Amino acid sequence: MKNANVAIFVPNLGCPHACSFCDQREIAGQSTIPTPEEVGKTARQALSQLGDSAGNAEIAFFGGSFTAIEPVLMRSLLEAAAPFTGKGGFKGIRISTRPDAIDANILTVLKRNGVTAIELGAQSMDAKVLELNYRGHTAHDVKTASALIHAYGFELGLQMMTGLYGSTPETDKATAQAIAALSPRTVRVYPTIIIEGTLLARYYREDKYIPQSLDGSVKLCAELLEFFHKKDIQVIRLGLHATPSLEESYVAGPWHPAFRELCESVIYHKRAEKALEGLHRGLRSVVLYVNPREISKLAGQHRKNILSLEEEFNVKIKICGREIPEYAVEAEGME
Ligand code: SF4
């Protein structure tokens, strides 16, 4: 089941860092700090709209380094959200924070105030990449915080970025492996986008940083998506959300409004190729079966996958829905 969260952004609050890629206000699409009253109002409204299905959703504090904000303020935001969780309410509270802003005391406060899931912005597990992008924490911090989060019984989520300054597809794949080894329940993967006002924007203009191409990023992220899928780790986000402020501050980089779908189409193309290779040649037409919800991903944008497969295998292809698992493709030949 997909996470259906009520997101409350806490922009750049308490964050003493200046990561190369981050202008949190732009990404969050707002620059004001929510008050406890606003948190309560948002949660109440969402609860009345969602009704019983709120039991599958979480109240999510995103956008900054939640556990690094002033402790009294952090507690007041959590206390405003907590009454809307539990029986008849949301299933819990999700927060995102930095790996070096987690310790036993903080986890105790989070536990007491209804937090159930913690996401860490790992971004990379490569020492050089972390340093070059001024993350201000180490891969060891990610490992230590992840172990502590598990020990306190929270759900662990990890976030990584691809295409950071100084990274390569190989270091990004190694990051994915290192992250998977920490057994998160969920992962978010963000291809690096250059945002106005960031260090990367300056590097880009000085020709010091070249962002990944959209094609290169889609190819890499398709591999990562397949990798996490095989490890049974849910990728709950792939690519940044489209927001008006992001579109305004976008400078360069592999951004696409349907980025995940592009990656999934790459996976389906590969799976379809494999299924077609299993059939004997000389068929005039073939039916490819896929889960009904995934038909458009197998077909690809503007039927790109179908056209290229028809050319590669010299066969007419039809797609039909069948209740089979996500990413599975079955092929049946027709004489
Ligand atoms: S730690 Fe998070 S909020 Fe702070 S600058 Fe880095 S990415 Fe932005």
Explained architecture:
This protein has 335 residues and is α/β, with parallel strands linked by helices. The chain has two domains: 254 residues, TIM Barrel, CATH 3.20.20.70; 64 residues, no CATH class. It is 40% helix and 20% strand. The strands form three sheets. A seven-stranded parallel beta sheet has the order 1-2-3-4-5-6-8, covered by helices on one side. A three-stranded mixed beta sheet has the order 11-10-12. Strand 3, helix 4 and strand 4 form a beta-alpha-beta unit. Helix 7 runs parallel beside helix 9 and helix 11 packs parallel to helix 13. It is globular. The two termini are 39 Å apart.
Write a concise keyword list for the protein shown above.
seven-stranded parallel beta sheet; alpha/beta; 12 strands; TIM Barrel; 2 domains; binds iron/sulfur cluster; 335 residues; 13 helices; three-stranded mixed beta sheet; 40% helix
Write the layout of secondary structure elements.
Layout: E1 4-9, H1 24-28, H2 36-50, E2 57-62, H3 71-81, E3 92-97, H4 104-112, E4 115-123, H5 127-132, H6 139-151, E5 155-162, H7 169-180, E6 186-191, E7 194-195, H8 199-205, H9 214-230, E8 234-238, H10 244-249, E9 250-252, H11 259-277, E10 285-290, H12 295-299, H13 304-313, E11 316-321, E12 330-334
Parallel strand pairs: 1-2, 2-3, 3-4, 4-5, 5-6, 6-8, 10-11
Antiparallel strand pairs: 7-9, 10-12
The chain binds iron/sulfur cluster.
